Amino acid sequence: MQTVFYARVSTADQTIAHQERQARDAGFAIDRVVADNGVSGVSTRLAERPEGQRLFDLLRAGDVLVVRWVDRLGRNYADVTETIREFMRRGVVIKTIINRMTFDGATADPMQQAVRDALIAFMAASAQAQAEATKAAQAAGIEHAKASNGSAYRGRKPSFTRAQMETVRDLLAQDAGVSVIARTTGLSRQAIYRMKDDPAEAEAVLAKWGL
Fold it and tell me: What is the pTM assigned to this prediction?
């Protein structure tokens, strides 16, 4: 049996090493890391990603697949739910770093199965909703940046990176408190509140600076 950590990074300021460190800091003993660089989880199914396909060839019954959250497996509801269920059918256990969730196909109790499947469906739906909200905020931010393109002054350089903003969004989606998010990301509470209250403006600031 082996524990495999799967990471996906889609922007330049995200790193696989950072995601792997989060997994190890959470107490997971990782035997192997499989990662996709520069791949969108919104538009590309796991089975269509170069290293995502490798997971299906690599994992066997009894293995553990660790992901940061279910959105690493895709942010499309149907894709995420089918991927998790396919791995469970193969006897693979899926564990998440955020919320420390475990999805195991071994249970034969119908009530436990119903609760597990409902939770998978809820988390997959939440991941897709978050992706759609992020896409809308990005579009609004880009339009905002274009509208003010005539001004040479871009304002103060943002105190956060895109990777930090995505982490903030992930944790907010999990109902994490602002103090917890601040400790996790190293950002101020004020910066987190600004991103929470006006995500389009946060996107606009990054877009103005080409980040």
Answer: 0.65
SS3 at position 67: strand
Are 13 and 161 a contacting pair, CB within 8 Å?
yes
Domains of the chain with bracketed CATH: 3-109 (3.40.50.1390), 125-208 (no CATH)
Residue environment code for 154-192, b if the CB has 16+ CB neighbours within 10 A, otherwise e? eeeebebbbbbbbbbbbbbbbebebeebbeebebeeebb
At 64 the pLDDT is: 95
Instruction: Report the alpha-carbon angle 102-108-110, nearest 5.
Output: 95
Identify the residue whose tokens are 């006897």: 91
Q: Report helix angle 189-197 to 178-185, nearest 10.
A: 110
21: number of Cβ within 10 Å: 11
Q: Which of 28, 135, 23 is nearest to 76 (CA)?
A: 135
Q: What is the mean pLDDT of each run of 10 residues along the chain (211 residues)?
A: 86 68 88 79 71 88 91 79 90 88 81 79 73 68 63 68 82 79 89 84 75 63
Nearest partner of 7 among 31, 32, 26, 35, judged by Cα: 35
